[in-house]
């Protein structure tokens, strides 16, 4: 009898637990799972916001059109990879430099650690407005300073010429993401025992040798995690490009998220935009699979 009562109480507790989880599950389905599945389904239709007809199922036509007829897609995909890899590489290198510096017992170290986070925590809109002002060709701080010191003869058109626009958004993207790398790598550095460096010094290793023999190997897991997250964030990044150039000039800085947004809300082609988003998801999944496989090999 007692066993039956205990079993009944456990079942009641389980039911109560599931009941308590129900609001969170409903919220997750309504805000995450349903829109995700609906977007995938929409990618197989010709859904247009301006059309009076109901969306029609067209199979893979949107995807075929993207990879065979869309003249923007391949230059955009190429720049997306260049943009992403540049941010990952240089934000890691500069972040590692800052992390090593902030790991040393310098004066006002706490202040500098907090200041390092500023580019990361300010809003995207504030960041874009400030950089547009700094790089303005008529009254921007950078052009005014260079002209006053006679380092240039005419203002630099940072966001007018395609090559310079690409360079500008990449530089701003690197600046924006250095704090994340710096703080993440700093946490990794603080987990390395000082005994290892002391032993290396006793064995006659100089700082550079200790860096390659101890620091980099000990930071391997942190490096893999931070660079993977940075790749995903940069490749999926929307606000940096959209607020600075909107993909221009002449689509020279266009990336997939911005292109999908413009296709959906400027051209009203929701089906085509959804297909672009699904392709972006496929690229992320392929990258994740490759990354997971390489990680298993490292282990």
Architecture overview:
- Helix content is 74%, strand content 0%.
- The protein has helices at 2-42, 61-68, 73-103, 109-116, 118-121, 124-134, 141-148, 162-190, 194-202, 207-218, 220-235, 239-244, 256-265, 270-298.
- The chain is globular and about 75 Å long.
- The mean pLDDT is 86.
Terminal Cα span: 52 Å
Helix content: over 70%
What kind of sheet is the major sheet?
none
* Structural class category: mainly alpha
Share of residues in strands: under 5%
The beta-strand count equals 0
Query: In sequence order, what are the helices and strands, one letter per element?
Result: HHHHHHHHHHHHHH
Number of helices: 14
Radius of gyration: 25 Å
Uncertain segments of ≥5 residues (pLDDT<50)?
none
Approximate shape: globular
Arithmetic mean of pLDDT: 86
What is the multimeric organization of the chains shown? single chain
